[in-house]
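# nightly structure sweep
# worker-07 picked up a monomer target from the shared queue
# config: single-sequence mode, recycle default, output format = structure tokens
# input follows
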Amino acid sequence: MIIRGGCTYERSLFYPTWTVLHVSASTDSFHLYLESAHYESHCPSCHGVSRRIHSRYWRTIRDTPFHSIPVFLYVRARKYFCDQPSCRQYIFVERRPDWWGSYDRKTYRLTAFFRHLAFSLSAEAESRIASQYGAILSGDAFLYLIRKEQLPAIEEPRVIGLDDWALKRGKRYGTVICDLERRRPIELLESRKEKVVSDWLKAYPSVRVTSKDGSTEYAKALSKGAPQAIQVTDRWHLFHNLNKRIEQFLKRKFPSGIIWQEGVDAGCSSESKQKALTEREAKKWQFIQQVQLQYRKGTRIADLCREFSLDRKTVSRYVQMESFPLVERKRIHSADPYHPLILSLMKQKVSKRQIFEVLQEKGYQKSFSTLKGYLLKVQKQEGSDQQKHALYKLPRQKIHSYLWSKPLEGPEKQVIHQLLKEDGQLQELQLLLKQFQQMMRIQRESDALSAWIERAEKTGIKELIQFAHYLRSDWQAVQNALVHPWSNGMVEGHVNRIKVIKRQMYGRANFDLLRIKILYCSR
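# output follows
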């Protein structure tokens, strides 16, 4: 029996088929001296049974901790003679394949504990946690344990999903491939190039359906590597693409937001339309026009990025602009946090000096002269507001949400209703968005999609025309998205999981290590 902390444990529960010769325990370690209860062993070469003992030696094995105290097993191992005349091996050591491997220094259950940690955390975090539980192992040893793990062979996939993930964001991208039927990733590729993906697909002719985003690179790879497979465009990416187009349209139509005054037509502020550009803004607009000129001449966006030293997103935004985006900058005054209190005091006909004293009690630390100018400005603004109707300013995001059927309340809803009544393009856009949602979620008919594209092209909204051209460029895959239930939702989830594992390892994991961690955890 083993006694620890006033509790008694039967040794046979922990070490069956072993004879315990001696037990010693201290506050920092636990030692058991064992010997096998079997007096025969099988030769590893000829598998013959031998009972003739040659000699004995002590072998040290680490086991799982006991009450967070390290456990060391000192096994008196026997060496046997092999008496089979045809066997080349003369002497062999008894094996215990049910407890540890031939050259291991840890039991299988301790190795399983380390393996579970290795595939859950980063190497250094694993080492720290394991030491807290009395199982000391270095970070490098955990990495070796991961790399030693053998991944099972890939079962013949029928339905797969592909998506890219960033090895180095903006520079290098890889590809994750998931089995959508078995709901797990089956391969991680170091590139998203057409040749790499198509070569992998050629090795698996069992693929029948493939789900992808709108990438033309993947479309070419699938056509070349798996021509027998049906390509399905992911529906979320279709919604995402359309959403971006609507955002561009609203930004072009309402560059400074939507300003509406009660009793006056809703629309863009005339002040923002007529405001002259400053010298700096004029120089910036001239630079944007140079980028647009080069783009209209046929220069690729990648070449424009290198020529003007701009980010790709910035160049894409510049070539879409029709006018310089005016930005309203609001200066923050030190008395702004006290604005409601100042208004209430002004209504009570309190003098400026008394307002200053009240604000000082509330924590205002500036001088009276600083506050006096602010009070004159507020007084003037209040006087002009009494002669005007209420003024509303609506951000573009509000109308964007409303067009996607998100409900609004109060004056915001009235403003948008008035806009929709007066603007035929917005009315048509709202109707088209509702039809697209219904078609993708409920109706799912390819004829309805063709009619929707034709109607979108007739609106004259260039962003919708661009989206219609995108649908036509990948027409068969888009049609399949209406018919087949497969999507890239699960693949996107595993892309997020890759990001988490990369951050756990501080972005320093080699590709082979990252691949094993991604694919092993899903088995």
